[in-house]
């Protein structure tokens, strides 16, 4: 009996001692894993919040930089426009001052001439005759050789001369829109303005179209242009013995046309041999100079030129605006690409993170399953041990009962013997 008491006390302490779940080693492992899992989730959540915060700060920073960049571009654009306007004003002022000085020195040092007329009148040949060269392309074809405005420059009699040749203004192959565009190019080439419009007419080919030429000039160059216009006859060699004055005097229509022009008229013979008519160009330039003096020494100017300047500025502004919009569109595309890439990276990170969490969760579940399996086995072993202990206890109790019965029997025998001994002693 005494030998079994330590075993009984050990089994009792093991089976009946503190057995709460908190003090179970397996449960403690499970709780620790759960705590670590929560800590990991909290850490991942904080990292995600920090990443989102940084992305938002980066987005706000980019927006602010873009706003500042646009403001700076707008400021620089305005400064460039102001500087360009100032430079243009300064250039025009200097040009006018230079022209005024040259005018005071030599009368008319720089002459700008615009040739107008219908196709085949000889405008290109006239330009070559004035400049004494072959800068303009000539052709005897009835179709227009000059498809667009062309400018040639040279020096004649000590003065610089710019000659601008224009397409035939009644050329059916040239659309109205194209003709307007060429007129604007003519304005641009003769900036700050021409001194004379030479209306080129071939002698012997005076038609209704040529009678309406002055009106065409006024419609396209403004009412003031007629005071800066001079009629220039070509093909004077075809008059034979008749002079140009006689030819004009015989035509009422020609007289009416010339009366509308402030510069009168002149005639030239466009011959490759300039030595045959050496005085025709100097006389023409002299008549032009006299006309300029009658016009107060000023060249032709009109709001059309201002309109051209405005159109040039508007075109430059439009190009800048298109460039700016193009850059903005490119930046938007880049930002969109960056945003998509960030979104893809974020999704990839989320997928990767979810995969990692899933693996962690699977590992935890596997560990939990193993722990539960281990706990179940330990519980079964404990129950088996308890059953064995109960069986041992039952056997011990049975043994104790037997021993008690033996002891009682022995006590009864001893009592009976003592009773008999006392009885015999009596």
TrEMBL record:
Residues 108-309 form the AIG1-type G domain. It holds the Pfam family AIG1. Transmembrane segments: none annotated. The keyword Nucleotide-binding applies. Residues 36-102, 310-414 are annotated as: Disordered. Residues 310-411 have a biased composition (Basic and acidic residues). It comes from the Eukaryota. Keywords: GTP-binding, Nucleotide-binding. Belongs to the TRAFAC class TrmE-Era-EngA-EngB-Septin-like GTPase superfamily. AIG1/Toc34/Toc159-like paraseptin GTPase family. IAN subfamily. This is AIG1-type G domain-containing protein. It comes from Oncorhynchus tshawytscha. The lineage of its organism: Eukaryota, Metazoa, Chordata, Craniata, Vertebrata. The gene is LOC112242002.
